[in-house]
Amino acid sequence: MSESYDIGLGNYDVSTRKSAESDYVGFWENQAKNLHWSSIWEKTLDWNPPFAKWFVGGKLNASYNALDVHQKEKSDKPAILWEGENGDSRILTYREMLIEVQKFANVLKSLNVKKGDRVTIYLPMIPELPISMLACSRIGATHTVVFSGFSATSIRDRIDDSKSKVVITADGGYRRGSIVKLKEVVDEAIQDFDFVKNVIVFERTKTKIAINEKDKLWNDLMNNASDICEPEPLDSLHPLYILYTSGTTGKPKGVLHGTGGYLTHLYSTFKWAFDIKDSDVFFCTADIGWVTGHSYVVYAPLLHGATEVMYEGAPDFPDASRMWNLIQKYKVTIFYTTPTALRMFMKFGDDMPNSFDLSSIRLLGTVGEPINPEVWKWYYKIIGKEKCPIIDTWWQTETGGMLISPLPGLETIPLKPGSGTRPIPGLLISVVDENGIELPANTKGFLVIKNPWPGMLLTLWGDDEKYKNVYWSKYPNCYYAGDYAIKDEDGYFWLLGRADDVLKIAGHRIGTAELESCIVSHDDIAESAVCGIPDEVKGEVIIVFAVLKENVEKNPDVLEKELISKIRTDIGSIATPKQIYFVSKLPKTRSGKIMRRLLKAIANNEHIGDVSTLEDGAAVTEIQTAFEELGKSIKEK
Ligand code: WTA
To answer: What is the CA(138)–ligand 1 centre distance, in A?
Structure first.
């Protein structure tokens, strides 16, 4: 079907896959033994679909497995090589990390944070972010990290939903040369919340901030804290964190991850996908505010006692060579980034990366969106110098860790540009049609997972019913991923983007419903429909159609500005639309539902298909005209 690349590390461990195929439960049981447990489980899997309990009765602690276990042999090894956007740098060894985490765990205890309490973390990419997360896990508090690009309204909704007792933030963080004032956002977000008892503020930028009654400075608290805090033995199913992610309906959902299964999944996938060795320097560019950062910046590398680079700011600041500079400076051996970042770097030509010494790199990874074959080849040739496998990892916030990926740490198989290759061992993945019937090779359908895996979400925070409906109701006893896929004649998977109303803008998940409800909450807007159109760099960009209320006579330019600012305030700048169109009506079915399929088809210049259920054909013409104009204005630019 397509060209393939025979590149690997010469690992041929056939037995791992074999044993996983014959008994996936026993297989994962063996994998779990790689972690340190204070009590061993009584039952490996209690599967009461769709609720999976892994390692029932087992007890462990995430921070213990990330830090304490390395103290004998690696206490002086750097855990984090940190670089700030403004050039500041810090190195934290495993010993120093453990001291900081124990001190901060004691700080949390002194503020009455107890096992099971939730703590919201809204920090830039600084070492205090993983330190806060690990301190929570040490005492059994459930962390909920909010990406530092989200607005006050977004963070308020998340604090409210999780009922966090404490919020951890910074005076600000550096982004593209400016200071993002995080503390101000938190002040606005928690105004009406009596249940938030304290705000801990780390002074990153030393900008002037208001100190309110609930506020405490990080350094003041740490100065008095003891550096000994015994890790709490926690049930395997103890909630490690909640991470909010956009879905197809309403507000973001709180994806809840446990401890034992999640960490087992991360330990194994990190080893298989990245073939991690003691000498490696790992660099994942994801922000910890997203799942990739939780799993493959914080937990997986630390479980392995690896050294990693952590970078604070924008990848193209002060210019697009920043990543190549970091790789050269820290002698990075494994680099894990997104197709959006790669497309951006590609635009600057080959001379820029070619002028750096990238010879330390031995593995390259990608995640978050489909990677175009031409971008894959550029990554392979220009960055990897045709000697590094490209590890295209498919997974989701809900899956906890990678589910489809080349695994050079385990086996050498030919790579095909644009395919994530095969599922990880122990996993049954299929491509099915609308009725759940398995499709023949090379046919596009829906991706489903047929058995539980240890990293899978426990549920949606406080909403078991929604958990069942969103993921397990389309097909009986199958997890519905919401992605289109093809399985080719060699059993390789090709992920083709979302099949539902979730957009992927620069790799970030944005729900159309969430955006539409924000737009219609503007006083002048009656109705709205949002869709994504392909973009050369970001993968997709947002197009908004809005119908004005009767008698609104505002200048469209003014209204457009108001809407953009509303979206930025309610959600965050990542949801800023590329274009807003004011139309007189939206294409709807006779029963009043917006025909998104139609919008998508028009947006992608595809055949619009059967429109017999359409209420009013004029709406389609209007939208088509709008897109033609858009096409023209893009060309003119
Ligand atoms: C998409 C990110 C193609 C997919 C880890 C999925 C990908 C969604 C890939 C989850 C990939 C992620 N190839 N598509 N390698 N990785 N996706 O929750 O649509 O932010 O459903 O997790 O990203 O996004 P999320």
So the answer is: 30
Taking CA atoms only, the protein residue closest to ligand 1 atom 12 is 368
Q: How, if at all, do strands 78-83 and 307-311 pair?
A: parallel
Atom of ligand 1 nearest to the CA of 404: 15
Task: For a ligand 1 pocket test, name from 243, 290, 367, 429 the mutation site with the most ligand atoms within 8 angstroms of its C-beta.
Answer: 367
607-623 pLDDT, tens digit each: 777 777 777 777 777 77
Q: Mean pLDDT check: name the lowest of 132-141, 180-189, 330-339, 592-601.
A: 592-601
User: What DSSP designation does 380 have?
Assistant: I
Residue 396 CA to ligand 1 centre (angstroms): 5
Averaged pLDDT for residues 280-301: 98
For residue 630, the Cα-to-chain-centroid distance in whole angstroms is 30
pLDDT of residue 466: 96
- What DSSP character marks residue 290? S
Nearest CA to ligand 1 atom 3: 370
pLDDT bin (cut points 50, 70, 90) of residue 597 is: confident
- Would you call 175 helix, strand, or coil by DSSP? strand
Residues in contact with ligand 1 (CB, 6 Å cut-off): 245, 290-292, 367-370, 392-397, 420, 481-483, 495, 497-498, 504, 509
Domain boundaries, the chain: 505-636
Q: For the residues of 294-341, what is the DSSP string, one character each?
A: IIIIIIHHHHTT-EEEEE-S-TTSSSTTHHHHHHHHHT-SEEEE-HHH
Question: pLDDT value at position 596?
Answer: 77
Q: Which one-letter DSSP state was computed for residue 435?
A: T
- 563-568 CB contacts, 8 Å cutoff, 24+ apart: 563/519, 563/522, 563/525, 566/518, 566/519, 566/521, 566/522, 567/515, 567/518, 567/519, 568/151
Given a cut of 50, is residue 491 above it in pLDDT?
Answer: yes
DSSP 382: I
CATH number of the 505-636 domain: 3.30.300.30
To the nearest whole percent, how much of the chain has pLDDT over 70? 98
What pLDDT was estimated at residue 129? 98
77 in Cβ contact with 93 (< 8 Å): yes
Secondary-structure percent of the chain, ordered helix, strand, coil, rounded to 5: 35, 25, 40
Q: What is the pTM of this model?
A: 0.95
